[in-house]
From TrEMBL:
<dbReference type="Pfam" id="PF00364">
    <property type="entry name" value="Biotin_lipoyl"/>
</dbReference>
<protein>
    <submittedName>
        <fullName>Acetyl-CoA carboxylase biotin carboxyl carrier protein subunit</fullName>
    </submittedName>
</protein>
<dbReference type="InterPro" id="IPR000089">
    <property type="entry name" value="Biotin_lipoyl"/>
</dbReference>
<dbReference type="InterPro" id="IPR050709">
    <property type="entry name" value="Biotin_Carboxyl_Carrier/Decarb"/>
</dbReference>
<dbReference type="InterPro" id="IPR011053">
    <property type="entry name" value="Single_hybrid_motif"/>
</dbReference>
<feature type="domain" description="Lipoyl-binding">
    <location>
        <begin position="83"/>
        <end position="161"/>
    </location>
</feature>
<keyword id="KW-0092">Biotin</keyword>
Length: 161
């Protein structure tokens, strides 16, 4: 299977690179982080100056020009689309019902300061009690439901300031 990578250079230029493109690259590793590359009849000297694997960012020096590069594959894009990327929970400003159910208990009030993992409310669904916890530290801005209320999937429950 031919994998595709989305490469962004200096935050602007976007290039799609495949496994086949990589295997056709005429590059020789000359030392730990240095490479000699031949492309289109021209010779290039490349060095990886800095890298952050978690953020998929690299700083590469090619013939004395420095480039900031981000590399993502289809799995990285899927993780981002699903909201599972590193630090994504810190951006959450509202809690919605993950499934239809009944609000059994509300453990917070408007203006309360909550910490990550504090219980916000209990939702009964399919005869099971589900404790919905805070994804981040914050202040409760609004509570859109009342105890005993029936809720639909994706209905707004709690908002953060």
């Amino acid at each position: 299977m031919n994998k595709a990578y989305q490469v962004k250079v200096n935050g602007a230029l976007e290039i799609s690179v495949s496994d086949k493109d990589i295997t056709l690259l005429d590059a020789i590793q000359t030392s730990d982080l240095k490479y000699h590359i031949l492309h289109g009849g021209k010779s290039y000297s490349a060095e990886i100056i800095d890298s952050n694997f978690d953020e998929k960012t690299y700083k590469v020096k090619i013939n004395n020009n420095t480039y900031n590069i981000n590399i993502n594959n289809s799995l990285h894009q899927l993780i981002k689309d699903l909201g599972f990327e590193i630090g994504s929970t810190k951006k959450v400003d509202k809690i919605t019902a993950p499934m239809p159910g009944l609000i059994l208990e509300i453990n917070v009030n408007i203006g309360d300061i909550v910490k990550e993992s504090d219980p916000l409310l209990i939702l009964e669904a399919m005869k099971m009690e589900n404790v919905l916890t805070s994804p981040r530290e914050g202040i409760i801005k609004s509570i859109a439901v009342e105890k005993g209320a029936a809720v639909d999937k994706n209905q707004l429950l709690v908002e953060f300031e």
